[in-house]
């Protein structure tokens, strides 16, 4: 029984080179679409993150105001309790039997008055904090409203670009998938690595004027002949890009 052919024997080196160049063309077109979008996706993400942070901050500030209001209410209740005790001790002073009992009640009244002073001081502090936090809330709400408007505008702008390019992009990704089927994973991995390291995203380049189309270093004549023969995949010894001859470039299309 004849053995099944492997992926590598099914696809010649020349076919792989053509596929790699087609892949490069498709990726370059996708890059153009991404360039058209510019920094918008990142700006949208940054605004979403900032808005989430502002909303968290507002939630915390509002909770702190509620807790401070509760603290003020508690201190007012403690003042009311202290005033009740003062009245009680003053009534008791009217019925004391000796100076010792009178002085003892006087000390209790003095202590409760000091407590009231302390409670009032705390209330003033809490109220000052409440006003400070309310100002922070107002500032944060204003910033939040601005950021939400900015986000809405950025999203609208991005959505318009995506809408305009969606059909083209879908076609490109479909073509990308088809071309990748012809290239074995090992070669795809190498291509992606070269592309990620290239500033302009070019992993497959032609030989132009006897030089690498990526880094522009000279390619020796014998090396150029090897590239034209398409017997093996050759990379630039300076930048590592995959090199193809003019004919593949001229015939290359998406």
Short description:
Helices cover 77% and strands 5% of the residues.
Keywords:
single chain, 254 residues, mainly alpha, Helix Hairpins, 2 domains, four-stranded mixed β-sheet, disordered N terminus
Can you characterise this structure?
The protein contains seven helices and four strands. It has helices spanning about 5-10, 15-35, 40-95, 100-180, 185-195, 220-230, 245-250, and strands at about 205-210, 210, 235, 240-245. The chain has a four-stranded mixed β-sheet. α2 runs antiparallel to α4 and α3 packs antiparallel against α4. Residues about 1-10 have low confidence and may be disordered.
Topology:
Layout: H1 7-10, H2 13-37, H3 40-93, H4 99-182, H5 185-197, E1 204-208, E2 211-212, H6 221-229, E3 234-235, E4 242-244, H7 246-251
Parallel strand pairs: 1-4
Antiparallel strand pairs: 1-2, 3-4
Low-confidence stretches: 1-9
Q: Please name the CATH architecture of the largest domain.
A: Orthogonal Bundle
Strand content: under 5%
Q: SSE string, helix = H, strand = E?
A: HHHHHEEHEEH
Structural class: mainly alpha
User: Largest sheet, described in full?
Assistant: 4 strands, mixed
- As for the CATH topology of the largest domain, it is Helix Hairpins
Principal-axes shape call: rod-shaped
Structural domain tally: 2
Rg over C-alpha atoms, rounded to the nearest angstrom:
39 Å
Distance between the termini: 39 Å
CATH class (first level) name of the largest domain: Mainly Alpha
Count the E strands.
4
The average pLDDT value, as a whole number, equals 91
């Amino acid at each position: 029984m004849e053995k099944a052919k492997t992926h590598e024997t099914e696809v010649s080196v020349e076919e792989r080179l053509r596929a790699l160049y087609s892949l490069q063309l498709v990726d370059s077109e996708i890059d153009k679409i991404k360039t058209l979008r510019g920094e918008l996706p990142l700006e949208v993400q940054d605004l979403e993150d900032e808005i989430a942070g502002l909303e968290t901050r507002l939630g915390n500030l509002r909770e702190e105001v509620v807790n401070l209001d509760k603290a003020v209410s508690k201190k007012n209740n403690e003042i009311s309790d202290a005033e009740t005790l003062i009245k009680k001790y003053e009534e008791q002073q009217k019925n004391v039997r000796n100076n010792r009992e009178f002085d003892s009640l006087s000390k209790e009244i003095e202590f409760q008055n000091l407590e009231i002073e302390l409670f009032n001081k705390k209330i003033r502090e809490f109220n000052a904090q409440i006003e400070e936090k309310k100002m922070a809330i107002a500032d944060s709400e204003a910033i939040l409203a601005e950021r939400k408007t900015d986000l809405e505008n950025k999203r609208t702008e991005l959505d318009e670009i995506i809408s305009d390019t969606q059909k083209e992009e879908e076609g490109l990704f479909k073509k990308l998938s088809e071309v990748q089927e012809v290239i074995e994973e090992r070669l795809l991995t190498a291509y992606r690595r070269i592309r990620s390291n290239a500033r302009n995203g070019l992993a497959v380049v032609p030989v132009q004027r006897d030089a690498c189309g990526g880094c522009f270093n000279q390619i020796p004549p014998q090396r150029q002949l090897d590239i034209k023969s398409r017997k093996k995949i050759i990379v630039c010894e300076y930048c590592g890009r995959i090199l193809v001859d003019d004919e593949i470039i001229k015939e290359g299309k998406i």
